[in-house]
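Quick one, tokens below. Sequence please?
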């Protein structure tokens, strides 16, 4: 359980929630995801209606790309709600904190003594909700043994290229338009760097076709 296997002590009989203050932050991610899904449905309706007015093949392709992007976001947002339920019901202890972070807006660490996974959101996260969504994705990856932690006490996650792309997809789906957050810039930088290391890595590891994220 998110309550550290002690639901009674934490006044959570079912043991299916984070600590109270942490749960409030997680609930904002859930609310944002639900709100985005409704907004995307409306956007999809507009795009579908626009097909009738598309006169050229180029226009149709642009609408198809937009429709695919919206559907991809919707799939990811629905997955986020299910994954948060998994985190809430997990026997793994998760903590969410705020504080300074070197070189990033968010980080996920593990303490081998307390066995707690700590998600920290830094002051550079101009959109704490989408940043938390990104880090919660890493929490799910940890539960699924898709990432590991290095070090002894407070240890940073050792994340693969695929894990980072998936986390940026989640962040993008939660907030695709507010460029003030700067996360799209971060995503472009990370994806570009990854492609330099492994050619065509985005194409190989991006079944939902979010590779065009770097074009935005």
């Amino acid at each position: 359980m998110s309550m550290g296997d002690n639901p009674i002590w934490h006044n959570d009989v079912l043991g299916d929630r984070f600590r109270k203050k942490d749960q409030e932050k997680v609930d904002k991610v859930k609310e944002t995801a639900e709100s985005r899904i409704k907004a995307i449905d409306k956007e999809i309706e507009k795009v579908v209606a626009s097909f009738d007015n598309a006169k050229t093949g180029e226009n149709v392709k642009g609408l198809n790309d937009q429709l695919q992007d919206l559907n991809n976001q919707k799939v990811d947002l629905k997955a986020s709600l299910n994954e948060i339920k998994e985190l809430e019901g997990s026997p793994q202890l998760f903590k969410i904190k705020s504080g300074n972070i070197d070189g990033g807006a968010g980080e996920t660490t593990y303490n081998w003594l307390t066995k707690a996974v700590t998600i920290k959101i830094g002051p550079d996260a101009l959109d704490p909700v989408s940043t938390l969504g990104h880090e919660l994705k890493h929490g799910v990856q940890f539960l699924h043994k898709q990432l590991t932690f290095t070090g002894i006490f407070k240890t940073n996650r050792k994340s693969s290229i695929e894990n980072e792309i998936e986390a940026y997809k989640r962040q993008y789906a939660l907030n695709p338009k507010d460029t003030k957050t700067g996360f799209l810039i971060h995503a472009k930088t990370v994806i570009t760097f990854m492609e330099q290391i492994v050619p065509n890595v985005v194409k190989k590891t991006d079944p939902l076709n979010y590779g065009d994220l770097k074009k935005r």
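DSSP finds six helices and five strands in the chain. Confidence is low (pLDDT under 50) at residues 1-15, 204-216.
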